[in-house]
Amino acid sequence: MRVNRKLAASLGSGLIIAVCLAVVVLVMRPMVQTARNSALMDSCFANLNRLGKAMDLYLADNDDHYPRAETWMDNLGTAIESGSKKPVEQVALKSYFRCPEIAREDQAAEFGYAFNDELSMGLAKSIDTHSKTPLVLDSSDLAYNAHGSINLLPNPRRHMGNCVLWCDLSAKNIAARTAKDLR
Questions:
Q1: Which residues, in sequence order, are CB contacts of 66 under 8 Å at separation 6+?
Q2: Which residues pair with 163 in a beta bridge?
Q3: What b/e sequence results for 50-88 when a residue is b if at least 16 CB atoms lie within 10 Å of its CB, and e otherwise?
């Protein structure tokens, strides 16, 4: 039985191309995943920075007192609407309170951020270390108006760490998993 040389050559070339494509996919996959995680983290920071601006507006309108923990999203939503020059759609407004890592259509009722209970109704000026006191954080409690302690940080962490909005209104990524790790 004689094999056609042209057929054998084209089968061999096809096999080499398939192997090369498989190697490229294997090499590119971690890079694509890292880029995706980085984009989600950037989106999370953008949300937290918006919430920081809304908190700044809220504090200015409320004699420098933080909102009640049980209604913090409602209060910041009102601050965002009042500080905006254009009407804010409710869908867009709710997206500010959604961590992009968990914000998928099948989880439309889940949010992913929590307010630090220790600050509820407190005076912002009374905090000694604004840059070390968490205000809003990535949370394992996905409910609307979620609130609690730093122990709500998701474990395992979401996007290469957990994102936190500090009382100085800066957003940072932290590697801490618990309150003990944070100190």
A1: 55, 58, 59, 72, 119, 120, 121, 122, 123, 124, 135
A2: 173
A3: bbbbbbebbbeeeeebbbebeebbebbbbbbeeeeeeee
Degrees to nearest 5, angle at CA 120 with 117 and 121: 170
Per mean pLDDT, which of 79-88, 99-108, 164-173 is the most reliable?
164-173
List Cα–Cα distances, 29 to 22, 42, 63, 156, in angstroms: 11, 20, 51, 21
Q: 113 with 97: CB under 8 angstroms? A: yes
Q: E strand or H helix at 113, and its extent?
A: strand 113-116
More confident residue, 64 or 7: 64
Query: What is the number of alpha carbons within 13 Å of residue 174 lying toward its C-beta?
Result: 26
CB 132 within 8 A of CB 165: no
How far apart are the C-alpha atoms of 80 and 78, rounded to whole Å?
5
Residues contacting 102, CB < 8 A, separation 6+: 110, 111, 112, 142, 158
List all residues 6 or more positions away from 45 whose beta carbon is below 8 Å from its beta carbon.
163, 171, 173
- In which band, very low, low, confident or very high, does the pLDDT at 92 lie, cut at 50, 70 and 90? confident
In the block, residue with structure tokens 């962490």: 157
